[in-house]
Amino acid sequence: MNVLRSQVCSILRRPIYRQIASVTRPFIPPAQLVFHDTLLEPGAKELDDSTVEALEDETDRRELEDDEFDPNDDRDKPHPDSPNFYSCRSSYYDNIVELQTAISRTRGTLQRLHLLPLPEFARKSLKPMPTVWKTPEEMTTDFETTMTISRYRRVTALLNELNEYLRIATTAGYADVADKIGSIISIFESGKKEAFLSRGIRKLVQLDQHGRSYTFGKRKTSSARVWMIPVKASSLQLNYDVNVEEALGLSDKPKRPPVNVTVSTILINNLPIAEYFPQPVDRERIVRPLKLAGVLGKYNVFTIVRGGGTTGQSGAIAHGIAKGIFAHEPETGTVLKRAKLLRRDPRMVERKKTGLAKARKRYTWVKR
Amino acid sequence: MHFLRPRPVRSSLKFSTLWSRQLSQHAQGRLETEDDWTDFQQTRTSLKTLMDGMSQYGSEQTSQWSLRDSLHRPAKDATLSALLASGAHFGHAASRMNPNFLPYAYGTRAGITLIDLDHTLPLLRRAAKVVRAVAANDGQIVFIGTRTDIRPVVQKAAQRLGAQGFHVGDRWLPGTLTNKWQMFGHETVRSKRIIPDLVILLNPLQNMNAIQECALSNVPTIAIVDSNVDPRIVMYPIPANDESPRTAEIIAGVLSIAGREGISIREAEMQRIRMAVDTAWEDFHKMQEVQSEPYTVDSRPRDSNAVDFDY
């Protein structure tokens, strides 16, 4: 390309010359046209060389505008930084390449340490390391490229592989390798990781300074607040386990050791259980968790219950008591879980629907 | 039934039982502590050491060839046998042959066009010369290979050229060169070199946009042309099979190594110039010192054989 041609073109592109420019004349609104009477002599169709030279100098002195950009000046400019420059998404592909190199290097290290390939029994012994990656929106802001689903999947597939290597390195005890992998992974981890992983996990009930547990139980529309405290074993204990034959020494069976049973109280809204729940069904329901856990006389129970009716209130108290027993003795967890006592019963009164007499009851079907 | 199971070779049978016996000891229990893991690693290390020690007593392996060598350690020059082995001579269906490809076609067999590799080799060498010259003149070279199997090929090839090498492994966005102001932004276009000095395409048929843009931006192109492609679309066509990844590895390897040579030639030349300039300056300074000294009888350079005259 002729070097001079670019300079001449740049001059010809200016509004003054457009009327005498080449065959293809772009449209310029009249307001932008600048006509200098002094420059162009009357009757002349072209400018003389001296005027052209003067204007060329002026162009050189002026700052280059976009349409005067000269590609021949490229030689002195530096190369673009990223080898992925011509993909127009250099930050995204740079990250992909970085992850791939990290994976291949880590794989090599673990192979040399004989930790890869890992047999099945060793894989089962790996520590679980659940992670939460950043959302596509967060990654979009980080990498300055739109994170489509396919791109996000590609990145997360590589991250999951790297996370597997992190698990192997930490479980086998190689802290330096694990730290290096961890530093790369932390860039892509969501800030809400702890919150996300701890969702749905039950908060542990703490016993207060007197050793009481405070739990909450619900059933239907009733809610019960339950306080449980272990009964202090006093010197005066009632021993109900008396067999006359054994006492007189006439029985064949071997003498059993006496069992000391403490007496506990259950108060509901400041009333004893027998007074608040006259029906034995309700009392049985309340006492069932204590019986299953084998702690019938061990804890004193104080409850405040509101809402609903007898069944709902007794169910709520039972739920609260089960949670309280679990707080005092976590070993009873399996038994109570199997009996579904730690579960908040989700059954609620179903609403009445239009066109039906009740929630499910239909009106009498009439043939005509 | 024992005789129905395939029997392994006697010598390796002993070894495999040794291995499985050692591993089954661990298979009974999980690896709980770090010591368990260390024992597990030590078992494997000891077995590997044993195998490495025993390997020197076996037959001598003269061939050091590995499957990954074609990508990671390609040859400097392509040979006819290597190209044949990679299937570079297989073209596309004879019915799809481009009439302009006829000079590079060897013939037809089984309904496909066979490519004449006697034409491929000199054209590949010519393209390598171009790459070497461009790289030696600090030129930017872009490798384009937009299929998943040739993505690592272009990545490696660009790596060999260092700061002057670039690659496009996924889609070439139309307008990269012709619409650069919008694609890269004003700051980047003003500050960095955008238009490359050479573009090498490994699958030109899928990247006609790139070829068109290179033509509009006056960028020379090299490409692997198959029998269904018109060789005139690029400046330096290399007739070969564009669907074979091994062929792409050989060709991209040859070109990228030529580029690396060009860069080292440039480095050597720059070093030579620097040395020449440095020595020239040293000589200049010495000369200045000599000239600055006042001329006296005693300061004349003395010749040992000269006779001293008394003036």
UniProtKB/TrEMBL annotation, chain A:
<dbReference type="InterPro" id="IPR020574">
    <property type="entry name" value="Ribosomal_uS9_CS"/>
</dbReference>
<protein>
    <submittedName>
        <fullName>SSU ribosomal protein S9P</fullName>
    </submittedName>
</protein>
<dbReference type="GO" id="GO:0003735">
    <property type="term" value="F:structural constituent of ribosome"/>
</dbReference>
<dbReference type="InterPro" id="IPR020568">
    <property type="entry name" value="Ribosomal_Su5_D2-typ_SF"/>
</dbReference>
<dbReference type="GO" id="GO:0006412">
    <property type="term" value="P:translation"/>
</dbReference>
<keyword id="KW-0689">Ribosomal protein</keyword>
<dbReference type="Pfam" id="PF00380">
    <property type="entry name" value="Ribosomal_S9"/>
</dbReference>
<dbReference type="InterPro" id="IPR014721">
    <property type="entry name" value="Ribsml_uS5_D2-typ_fold_subgr"/>
</dbReference>
<dbReference type="GO" id="GO:0003723">
    <property type="term" value="F:RNA binding"/>
</dbReference>
<feature type="compositionally biased region" description="Acidic residues">
    <location>
        <begin position="49"/>
        <end position="58"/>
    </location>
</feature>
<feature type="region of interest" description="Disordered">
    <location>
        <begin position="46"/>
        <end position="85"/>
    </location>
</feature>
<dbReference type="InterPro" id="IPR000754">
    <property type="entry name" value="Ribosomal_uS9"/>
</dbReference>
<dbReference type="GO" id="GO:0005763">
    <property type="term" value="C:mitochondrial small ribosomal subunit"/>
</dbReference>
<comment type="similarity">
    <text>Belongs to the universal ribosomal protein uS9 family.</text>
</comment>
<keyword id="KW-0687">Ribonucleoprotein</keyword>
UniProtKB/TrEMBL annotation, chain B:
<keyword id="KW-0689">Ribosomal protein</keyword>
<protein>
    <submittedName>
        <fullName>Ribosomal protein S2, flavodoxin-like domain-containing protein</fullName>
    </submittedName>
</protein>
<feature type="region of interest" description="Disordered">
    <location>
        <begin position="292"/>
        <end position="311"/>
    </location>
</feature>
<dbReference type="GO" id="GO:0003735">
    <property type="term" value="F:structural constituent of ribosome"/>
</dbReference>
<dbReference type="InterPro" id="IPR018130">
    <property type="entry name" value="Ribosomal_uS2_CS"/>
</dbReference>
<dbReference type="InterPro" id="IPR023591">
    <property type="entry name" value="Ribosomal_uS2_flav_dom_sf"/>
</dbReference>
<dbReference type="GO" id="GO:0005763">
    <property type="term" value="C:mitochondrial small ribosomal subunit"/>
</dbReference>
<comment type="similarity">
    <text>Belongs to the universal ribosomal protein uS2 family.</text>
</comment>
<dbReference type="InterPro" id="IPR005706">
    <property type="entry name" value="Ribosomal_uS2_bac/mit/plastid"/>
</dbReference>
<dbReference type="GO" id="GO:0006412">
    <property type="term" value="P:translation"/>
</dbReference>
<keyword id="KW-0687">Ribonucleoprotein</keyword>
<dbReference type="InterPro" id="IPR001865">
    <property type="entry name" value="Ribosomal_uS2"/>
</dbReference>
<dbReference type="Pfam" id="PF00318">
    <property type="entry name" value="Ribosomal_S2"/>
</dbReference>
